[in-house]
Amino acid sequence: MSSLVDHDAPRPRCAAGKVCSTGRRLKVLLVEDNPADAITIERQLVADSRGAATVVQVDSLTSTLLSLTQDDFDAIFLDLNLPDSDGLETAMLLLQQALTTPIVVVSSEEMEQVAIEAVRLGAQDYLSKSRLRSENLYRTATHAIERQSLRLALERRIADLERKRQNFRSLIADNADAMIVMDSDGKIRFSNRAAEALMGRSKAALEGSDFGQPLEGTENSDIEIVGGDGRPVVVDLRVMNTTWEGEPAYIATLRDVTEHKEAERMLRVAKQSADLASQVKTQFLANISHELRTPLNAIMGFAELLLMEVHGPLGHADYGEYLKDIRNSGRELTDLINRLLDLSKAQAGALTLQEQEEDLHSLLETAVRSYHAPAAEAGLRLTLDNRTERCGLFCDAERLKEVIDILLSNSLKFTERGGEICLSAAVTEEGILEISIADNGRGMPREQVLRAFSAFERPDGAYSTETGQGAGLGLALAKTLVELHAGIIRLDSDVGRGTRATILLPAARLSAQAPRTNLAVLRQEGPKLVSG
Questions:
Q1: pLDDT digit string (tens) for 15-48?
Q2: Residue-wise pLDDT tens digits, 136-156
Q3: What CA–CA distance (Å, rounded) separates 412 from 375?
Q4: Residues 148, 141: contact at Cβ < 8 Å?
Q5: What are phi and psi of 311, to 5 degrees?
Q6: pLDDT band at 298 (very low <50, low <70, confident <90, very high)
Q7: Top-level CATH class of 26-160?
Q8: Which of 25, 126, 483, 486 is most buried, judging by how many CB atoms fall within 10 Å of its CB?
Q9: Which residues contact 439 (CB under 8 A, 6 or more apart)?
Q10: Domain extents for the chain?
């Protein structure tokens, strides 16, 4: 009697690479935002394992997903209620990411039904916080790992049986692909109706004839045969060994892939054309940007000279305002050209960073200082809340400042007079740098937030405070620049409540002395603009 356990499948391994069993080390990711509960679970898990368990604790879903990309864990203990995710949605999001790591849900008694539903969806177990002291958490973790191993082995076995069932159905179905049976000499012993139609010969004519193609060592290949109309046909040939009337034989399945191969050829041609078009577009943008910058520099330069009244007064006072409009429009057009060129370079993989260690506090102060005057002119309060205490950041300062400029500019555009904008920075307890730009402007509906990072996507007029909204390149470029820094950018917005743009940069980019901050506490202390 066969076992459900796949003995050939690799067993789950702990952080040190040893097979997990009683007394072996485990590396556990603890997702818990309540400090007291986190300490209780960690201490009990270490005590139950007699020091054989190592616990890494995070307090948000975002930190969890980042941790899973940076390290391997043997098991996850998950609290469903987190600052950035709540209830069953937390389990569902994590199950989609941690496909092979077992999850043990840790819930309060009132969330027990939700925890049970999480187990039904794929979590391996759940524990009630009120009964933790009566449980052996180390044994719970090891049992969850074993069950996950059994589940994965069973899924592989089911998938294998399904593949065999599909092969059998293809073999016996009357309307299946063309199938023939040949003996060891290559003589056709049996053919189905699809084979007769494909080869344009009757069953009597096919059986006993020579197939004309060597089958020894052939499993899957494309060959060319003569079709029923006398024209060449490309077929996908699949061969399996079998026994026919007590003698060794081959079963060959033939599928007409002539159109598919032609489509592949056309796709290759189309891809080559697209690559060439992309190169031409990039070169065109580079050339046109140069051609546009030259007259723009002259326009803005002469506008500056006239504003300085180098050769005497302008005369009418309106002329000065006109010249300022010319200069500002030239600057906006130059910025648009630069963003369009940068976005094109990024899409072609040609945009690179010039990175070195920068003082984060100076970078943030410079970004805020450049927007104090526009904010004051628009009747807005702009503040900086920096919790990083002058730590070093390895980055391309110009590119990162460009991202912050884009986000601050958007907040200025979409926040009404009397509103607030706050640029904040903090380092999480996991060492992740979080930079946020939050405002209490009009905000956007959810469907627009989902499209916000697409190129040329602009908010509807109903959610903007001005008609000139730009070309819709800013957020697309910001996302590209943050991802080049190996980071993540996120947008949260509610109509009537405002918008928060969040940049997350990995711990490896920070100097070792960067202080950690509990973001849950920070958000309670900080401006009540938009919840993160």
A1: 333 334 445 689 999 999 999 889 989 999 998 8
A2: 889 988 998 998 899 889 988
A3: 7
A4: no
A5: -105, 25
A6: confident
A7: alpha beta
A8: 126
A9: 411, 414, 415, 419, 420, 421, 422, 498, 499, 500, 529, 530
A10: 26-160, 178-256, 261-347, 356-525
Question: Which architecture does CATH list for 261-347?
Answer: Orthogonal Bundle (1.10)
Residue 531 has pLDDT above 60, yes or no: no
363 Cβ contact list (under 8 Å, min separation 6): 393, 397, 400, 401
pLDDT tens, position by position, 465-476:
444 455 567 888
pLDDT in tens, 422-442: 999 998 888 899 999 999 988
Cβ neighbours of residue 481 under 8 Å, at least 6 residues apart? 342, 346, 399, 400, 402, 403
| CATH architecture of residue range(s) 178-256 | 2-Layer Sandwich (3.30)
Q: Which of 207, 200, 258 is nearest to 230 (CA)?
A: 200
Query: Which DSSP string do the residues of 476-528 spell out, in sequence order?
Result: HHHHHHHHHTT-EEEEEEETTTEEEEEEEE-GGGB-TTPPP--HHHHHHHS--
CA-based angle 468:469:473, to the nearest 5?
Answer: 135
CATH class of residue range 356-525: alpha beta
